[in-house]
Write a structure and sequence with these properties.
By secondary structure, this protein is an alpha/beta fold. It has helices at 10-19, 60-76, 105-116, 145-155, 169-178, 222-233, 252-257, 287-295; strands at residues 2-5, 27-31, 37-41, 49-53, 81-85, 120-124, 138-142, 159-163, 184-191, 198-204, 210-218, 238-246, 263-267, 281-284. The chain has a seven-stranded mixed sheet, with helices on both faces. Strands 1-4-5-6-7 form a five-stranded parallel sheet, sandwiched between helices. A hairpin with a 5-residue loop joins strand 2 and strand 3 (37-41). The longest helix has 17 residues, at 60-76. The protein is globular and about 60 Å long. The model has no long low-confidence stretch (mean pLDDT 94).
Length: 296
Amino acid sequence: MKIFSGTSNRPLAQKIAEKLGQDLSPLEIYVFPDGEKRIRVLERVTDEDCVVVQPTSPEPDKSYMELFFIVDALRRSGASKIKAVIPYLGYQRQDHVFREGEAVSLEVIATLLKWGGVDEVISFDLHSIKIPEIFKIKLNHLSALPIFAQEIKKMGKATVLISPDSGGIRRIKLLSRMLGNMPFAVIKKDRNLATGKVAMDGIEGKVKENAVIIDDMISTGGTIVGASDLLKKKGVKEIFVFATHAVFSDQAPSILSNSSLKKVFVTDTINIPKEKRFPKLQILSVSQMIAEQLKM
């Protein structure tokens, strides 16, 4: 097996290679003055199984195009099988038509991955459990919940798990079972699809002294902070957040840092640059889980 990395999250690719006792295989990625990229494989891959690590944030369009070019270069160089490790799958929130006239962007991505020569995809905590149905190639849907469960067990406090919306109920129930049926509650939320604004109407379930908000991703941070403020009003003292994907768009790091949250746990499915890190942030790695999946 040979492991290659695009430019979106080389630190994660390096960790995966180390877990497998390997070095990253070299690629030449040349960027022309107009932004076009030229990809070249620098070692023999004939009849080799190849892995390409390339999450798709913060610039999904550029990341996907780079991934497609790497895959094409490997296929033309004789690779026997190509696995795309896309820990954060860009466009996953556009998996069906919400309003008349919209594109199903994720279906376009799934088609391009198959057409381009990807045999298998590895990803984490997809926004919907129906997403694998869109893909005509194998999609291994992993979850960071076991990693989160290990950290939550260390807290040893009277804690309730919180889903910031009804869409996360399945996720919160799975984690509850991992934690010996830890109690959970769900925040009632309504999002305006045209403006993106969120209104929080209350909580279904009882809260405790401490709360752990669980989500698949943090984008602007508005939903998380809104949930935290509501929990504070209900008497919760300490609030922690666990989210798989640190999309961290706009002013999210500042919003989270200045909130009442005690700590924010995310994973390294997306590379977080130094300027987006803050004292409350703790990054957990999914590299071991990916390495174990690649051994199968």
